[in-house]
Design brief:
It contains 16 helices and 16 strands. The strands form four sheets. Strands 11-13-12-15-16-14 form a six-stranded antiparallel sheet.
């Protein structure tokens, strides 16, 4: 008898099962999605970067995500240092049909930058090149806020960024990118001149307003990991403006304190969320527990308002006067915020497009104070509007252009018992704010239990996004639980320029 091996595909096995219905084939489950050892050895030789495998010294640290709620055990972590590394990785996972995830900072709230398959990590693509004369900068997708902000500060230039130092550009910009000065200048994605992506087949394409317009539109708001591997983003920069940070506080210890906080929130809403409010004022409010004195003193609840004013300090003081006049306001408040390292967390975020009444704010605050299962929970309210809403809605896939504020509750835990209580609190809060919600969710704060993620994240932009997906990634190689699925072009009627661009062939060469 010949010792020749016979290979039977999964499709053939299924067909046998259909013909012989009484006999079900026994299929041995695969323990993990992994590349063959010989492929990994070849990658180790050819990569400028490196491969980390289970058992390696750096594996435990490398596999972990920012949110310790997720505990992925990837079969391999491949760190790319140059663009060619990305191409080698995509070629390998494509040929072997191996599941993979893209990762830059590992900060996905829903854990989508981790898996038990292969992780393609692009944090090594972190080059920044500033053109101070032309006021633009190509930025590598793996560049962190800390690095980019430092370089911009040295050149006295500005770009809307957040304050989390280890967040990387790739995920931030593709989800829109709400920054500390976004009410003044718009979302981070609104500053993009062009992008370079590597597609599933290894081709590198450039997308801008005039070249591959549909992809340029989709990447800015269509969420990371959907269309290809973002390599670089070229930003439009501004001369660094005068910026003044500020912070106010309200105690939330007694019944009277609650009314004072409601008054402060109504002033915030009237002064900085409505149409016509000064775009120079960037403002957030957070409800949380703080220790007023050194260790040993129990944490007590506070409402903190803080932000950045783009302009002179005297102008800022005049605009803050209505808030300062509210009863219970502590001016020049400087809280010491403790870290929550190694804690697991979940978050429910909701966008709101209308004014709330005093009883609405009262119910939100009262629910938080009465039901939080521990003193780690935080409720944050970020004022949007301004330049965010002024950007044309059809000009990017980030369509949340009628939002007054983003409101999100974050719960933290360590044990299973704490997890159950925290998630119950999160669920009850979601029910409470349902009447205020406009049906949309900021896609950079994804949640696995979004009621209808396609509508919640992308709304009217989704049909066009599905068509862009079909054009640039027809086999859906870039996939994760809330990925955009390829759709047909014939169903797309908006935006007009995207509809027209979808008819054009992909322009390569970058």
């Amino acid at each position: 008898m010949s010792d020749r091996k016979i290979h039977i595909s999964a499709e053939q096995i299924l067909n046998i099962g259909r013909k012989r219905r009484r006999r079900r084939p026994v299929v041995t489950p695969v323990a993990r999605a992994e590349l063959p050892p010989e492929e990994l050895e070849c990658l180790k030789i050819r990569l400028v970067g490196h491969v980390v495998m289970p058992g390696d010294n750096s594996y435990e640290a490398g596999r972990r995500l920012f949110n310790r709620r997720f505990d992925p055990h990837p079969s391999a972590i491949i760190y790319c240092m140059v663009e060619r590394d990305v191409g080698l990785c995509l070629d390998a996972v494509r040929r072997h049909e191996t599941p993979f995830r893209l990762r830059a900072g590992g900060n996905s709230f829903a854990g989508y930058s981790g898996s038990d398959g292969v992780i393609i990590d692009v944090r090594g693509l972190n080059d920044v090149s500033i053109d101070p004369g032309g006021l633009f900068a190509p930025v590598g997708s793996g560049c962190s806020f800390a690095k980019l902000q430092s370089i911009l500060d040295d050149q006295e230039l500005h770009l809307p960024l957040g304050d989390a130092k280890d967040v990387r550009i790739a995920g931030f910009v593709q989800g829109g990118g709400f920054g500390l000065t976004s009410r003044t200048y718009g979302m981070n994605s609104d500053q993009v001149l062009d992008v370079r992506l590597m597609l599933a087949d290894g081709r590198i394409v450039r997308a801008s307003d005039t070249v591959n317009h549909d992809l340029w539109w989709a990447v800015r708001g269509g969420t990371g990991g959907n269309f290809g591997v973002l390599l670089t983003t070229r930003y439009r920069l501004r001369r660094a403006p005068q910026q003044n940070p500020w912070c106010l506080g309200w105690r939330l210890w007694r019944d009277a304190d609650l009314e004072n906080a409601v008054s402060g929130l109504m002033t915030l809403q009237d002064s900085f969320m409505r149409s016509g409010a000064p775009i120079e004022m960037n403002v957030s409010a957070v409800i949380l527990y703080l220790a007023e004195a050194p260790a040993g003193v129990p944490k007590m609840p506070w409402m903190i308002m803080w932000g950045t004013y783009v302009g002179s300090e005297s102008d800022m003081d005049a605009l803050l006067e209505p808030l300062l006049s509210n009863p219970g306001c502590w001016p020049r408040f400087q809280p010491l915020l403790g870290g929550r390292h190694r804690l697991k967390f979940d978050r429910c975020g909701r966008l709101v497009s209308r004014d709330l009444k005093p009883q609405d704010w009262r119910s939100i605050l009262s629910h938080f104070l009465a039901n939080t299962p521990n003193r780690q929970s935080t409720l944050q309210i970020d004022a949007w509007g301004g330049a965010i809403n002024a950007y044309p809605r059809e000009s990017s896939a980030f369509i949340h252009r009628d939002t007054a504020f983003n409101m999100g509750l974050t719960v933290w835990w360590q044990t299973k018992t704490q997890e159950a209580a925290s998630k119950s609190f999160l669920s009850s809060w979601s029910d409470l704010v349902m009447p205020f919600w406009n049906g949309q969710i900021y896609q950079n704060f994804p949640t696995a239990d979004a009621p209808d993620y396609e509508s919640n994240y992308w709304g009217a932009a989704f049909p066009a996004l599905a068509a862009v997906k079909h054009k640039y990634d027809p086999d859906c190689m870039f996939d994760f639980p809330q990925a955009i699925k390829p759709g047909v072009q014939s169903s797309v009627t908006w935006p007009p320029r995207v509809v027209e661009s979808l008819r054009q062939p992909i322009m390569t060469g970058a």
